[in-house]
Amino acid sequence: xxxxxxxxxxxxxxxxxxxxxxxxxxxxxxxxxxxxxxxxxxxxxxxxxxxxxxxxxxxxxxxxxxxxxxxxxxxxxxxxxxxxxxxxxxxxxxxxxxxxxxxxxxxxxxxxxxxxxxxxxxxxxxxxxxxxxxxxxxxxxxxxxxxxxxxxxxxxxxxxxxxxxxxxxxxxxxxxxxxxxxxxxxxxxxxxxxxxxxxxxxxxxxxxxxxxxxxxxxxxxxxxxxxxxxxxxxxxxxxxxxxxxxxxxxxxxxxxxxxxxxxxxxxxxxxxxxxxxxxxxxxxxxxxxxxxxxxxxxxxxxxxxxxxxxxxxxxxxxxxxxxxxxxxxxxxxxxxxxxxxxxxxxxxxxxxxxxxxxxxxxxxxxxxxxxxxxxxxxxxxxxxxxxxxxxxxxxxxxxxxxxxxxxxxxxxxxxxxxxxxxxxxxxxxxxxxxxxxxxxxxxxxxxxx
Length: 449
Prior knowledge:
mainly alpha; Amino acid/polyamine transporter I; cell membrane
């Protein structure tokens, strides 16, 4: 193999079945969302948090429309990077939004890693493991990195196995939790904190974080069998499955813990909810389940994210340095992805990691819908009304979320703003340096053929 061959990413077309794609999607979705977000959502909107999951699902259903239309028309390994490029060409909006997506996925890995740490400590009954949580998270990220170096079959095999264990376990948790609870009624009246519209919108935004794993499926476009039909199907099936599961789990937690207790144990609320219902065994079961789920989520996610960064590098939209490393570009992007994740895991707590992730993700999501609406809706046969509704809904929950965070944690809003400004400035310098005659929207037509 020559040095030149070694630098290009390797993809195996037709290596993922529809079931494999659904497992990959639900694996990433369930990994992050349910274990750590339940408590954070309760903190924002009190007893209405199970409803916030449902309103998140509704918004994601509108959001998914653009991805389904695009992936049916242009299945590719680059997923979102490719969709942005189709809409905006080799321009700053493409690079900026693709990097927002990239960072929101790296952030999701750190979120999983810290959640893994929090639940692992529940196994050993450690109450305050301030230093242990990031240590465990970092160890998990490094392990996932080694698994990802080993190749595709192992990743799909591991992800599928973990996906099955996790799906089964979560469903058992939800139904048993409801079955042993004194009453299934989640009491929406006694509420601490008092629900506000901004709080509900903010909790809905966090709920979207629990569903955004469906976008991972788009990144596997060129590897799924019969991608023009199956990418869209895999997205729809994954979201539908998660709606049912999250609703059941939300009610199970609400039936077993008071809202103040959910908020107090927000980083491991599922384990806490299992204790009154099932005692220590319930806590162990839930902790092991969470550890398995987050580990599986990280393995699948690192795979997809490094894939996306490799694609952006090949499109010459981001600067790339080998730093003297051997191997192909995708191996390098794997290293950068893990290093970034390690830094976030070590220095940020769960709610801040989640906040950064959702701000980046929603802004990128709006850009995708706008790009499809403005430039591609005729080509991919998308209905303008659905696209505009998706933009409005995203904008609403983003505004609600920012409003809540400005009062409760203005620092994280500042960090998000600074990070986006840094991405914008560095990308405009890089692209300006790349080629003075980059295509603008005026000569847009040639991207489409």
